[in-house]
Design brief:
The complex is a heterodimer of chains A (251) and B (271). Chain A has helices at 47-54, 94-98, 100-104, 111-123, 139-151, 169-185, 197-203, 230-235, 238-250; strands spanning 3-15, 20-32, 36-40, 62-67, 70-71, 79-82, 157-161, 189-194, 206-210, 215-222. Chain A is of the alpha/beta class and 251 residues long. Chain A has 9 helices and 10 strands. Chain A has a domain at 1-72 and 191-251: 3-Layer(aba) Sandwich (Rossmann fold), CATH 3.40.50. Chain B contains 12 helices and no strands. Chain B has helices at 2-11, 14-50, 56-59, 62-75, 77-109, 111-126, 133-140, 144-168, 172-180, 185-222, 228-237, 241-269. In chain B, helix 7 (133-140) crosses helix 8 and helix 8 (144-168) packs antiparallel against helix 10. The two termini of chain B are 27 Å apart. The chains are: A alpha/beta (251), B mainly alpha (271).
Chain lengths: 251, 271
């Protein structure tokens, strides 16, 4: 399998009034095409910095980030970003929210793109809510809309920044399953950042464990389970062993 | 629609029916209270004036106010005064709102400009604008122009500050989301910041209705040849307090009218 994303000895410092903070010391890892990878690490270790760097919202102080053979550019259009909260715009309908990205890139009159957006809505049971406002939808549905809003732009790589952390536990498991299904059936490559080990385990093919700040890669674990959905994976007997191993590496 | 509604009421539980009844009753009581206060106030005022407990020369009375308004209307000058004040208020209100929002947008656009302007905004906000009155007369001359300037000065600073605060209160992740989808700064402004600040804008409009009337009356007190503020001033100088009270009554009606035009916007745009 080919590497879609590569971090090569990436360092990142950020500046505050008081001092220069070394967020990433030496981060090297790769993400294969059509796989699901997760980054876990102690809180405040620079997980979100890695996503911002990948999205081209920040540029590395040293080192290289390669996506599909080419270095990352500023606001790279090959990247889709999903945030902790859905950030749907309350004044727009679900449909208007979904085509927001197309609108910003002036592609909202392209019939092919619009047809694709409609198809995604139908496929993931949101078509009937097309003309509703976000506040009329449940938390789980809103997160699905947020994912589709990203997918409409057909990104090569999806970045997920703890996208379930704002949901209650029941919804979280369900949405986690939904999002996983969507990502798999659209054959997307995804990179998830989370502090929840079981969430990372239930979704990922590979887990990248970071040390505390300044972060470097402590260990990379490849995961394989019998079960196919996140919920089923949680029941796998290997789950506990993996969990313990990762947990030991975190503390 | 109607028969269907009747049908569904049949299925309402007793608790639901009681609840709805209580709701209706509450509303009726509030309305009744409001009307009672109005009637009592007018009635007692009239009674006290008629029986000589208060001197109608100083306190006027509802009947004298009505007669004064009718007299002024017959003379035709009433419409001139109302129109002048209304015109000044509306023009001042519109200029202040447009300018205030524009300045807020500029300050949002450039963080550096915002930092530079911060102390000046604070000073302008705490300065009682009425103090500038005499200067305004020297600068733009007395009359309608001066009143509009006063009105704009009183409204504009609060408009700028409120709108700027609404603009910068946006969740930074939403801006990041827009950036991750390649929005340029214009798109961030028009598709995110302005719609986000719409509820605050409606609040500002409501505040400005009151503030622009303050500006107009202040301006007319300072120097004017027409307007309700002029009429109040004139009435007090020739000791015809009926004219003063009549003008205040008209002011109440006009301000309430303007408020009623703006307030439906609030229901529409505020969650």
């Amino acid at each position: 399998m080919t590497n879609l994303l590569e971090f090569k000895k990436v360092k990142y410092f950020y500046q505050t009034k008081e001092s220069e903070i070394n967020a990433l010391e030496n981060v090297t890892f790769s993400v294969q095409e059509k796989t699901f990878s997760s980054i876990v690490g102690p809180s405040g270790c620079g997980k979100t910095t890695i996503l911002s760097l990948t999205a081209g919202l920040l540029s590395p102080s040293e080192g290289e980030i390669i996506l599909n053979g080419k270095p990352i550019q500023k606001n790279d259009s090959r990247i889709g970003y999903m945030f902790q909260r859905d950030h749907l715009f309350e004044w727009r309908t679900i449909w208007q929210n979904i085509i927001l990205g197309l609108e910003l890139q002036k592609k909202h009159k392209d019939p092919e793109k619009l047809a694709f957006a409609e198809e995604l809505l139908k496929k993931y049971d949101l078509y009937n809510f097309k003309n509703k406002k976000p506040r009329q939808l449940s938390g789980g549905m809103r997160q699905r809309v947020a994912l589709i809003r990203t997918l409409v732009l057909e990104p090569k790589l999806l970045l997920l920044d703890e996208p379930f952390s704002a949901l209650d536990f029941q919804t979280r498991l369900k949405v986690c399953d939904d999002v996983y299904d969507i990502i798999k059936s659209e054959q997307k490559t995804a990179l998830l950042v989370t502090h929840d080990i079981s969430e990372a385990l239930s979704m990922s093919d590979r887990i990248i464990i970071l040390t505390k700040r300044p972060a470097s890669v402590k260990k990379v674990v490849d995961i394989s389970f019998q079960g196919s959905s996140p919920l089923l994976k949680r029941e796998d007997e290997e789950f506990g062993k993996y969990f313990e191993m990762i947990w030991r590496n975190l503390v | 629609m109607k028969p269907r509604k009747c049908k569904t009421t049949k299925f309402y539980s007793k608790a639901r029916r009681d609840y709805l009844k209580r709701l209706k009753k509450d509303k009726a009581w509030v309305l009744l209270g409001q009307i009672a206060i109005f009637v009592c106030f007018i009635g007692i005022w009239q009674l006290l004036a008629d029986t000589g407990v208060i001197d109608p020369f100083f306190f006027s009375s509802p009947s004298r106010i009505v007669t004064t308004i009718i007299d002024l209307a017959k003379g035709g000058e009433l419409w001139l005064h109302i129109w002048t004040s209304l015109y000044e208020t509306i023009i001042g209100f519109i200029i202040a709102t447009i300018l205030g929002v524009t300045i807020a947008i500029l300050l949002w656009w450039s963080e550096r400009l915002r930092k530079i302007m911060e102390p000046y905004l604070i000073i302008l906000n705490s300065l009682p604008k009425i103090a500038l009155g005499p200067m305004i007369i020297f600068w733009v001359g007395s009359g309608t122009g001066a009143t509009i300037v006063m009105c704009v000065l009183i409204c504009i600073v609060i408009t700028t500050i409120s709108m700027l605060n609404a603009f910068i209160s946006i969740d930074s992740d939403k801006v990041l989301l827009m950036k991750s989808m390649h929005a340029n700064k214009f798109q961030i402004l028009f598709k995110l910041i302005l719609p986000h600040a719409l509820p605050e804008f409606v609040s500002v409009l409501k505040i400005n209705v009151g503030m622009s009337w303050v500006g107009t009356i202040m301006g007319e007190y300072l120097s004017s040849k027409a307007g309700l503020g002029y009429l109040i001033n004139y009435g007090s100088q020739i000791l015809k307090l009926d004219i003063v009270m009549a003008s205040i009554t008209l002011l109440c009606i006009l301000a309430a009218g303007m408020y009623l035009i703006v307030s439906p916007l609030e229901k529409r745009y505020k969650k």
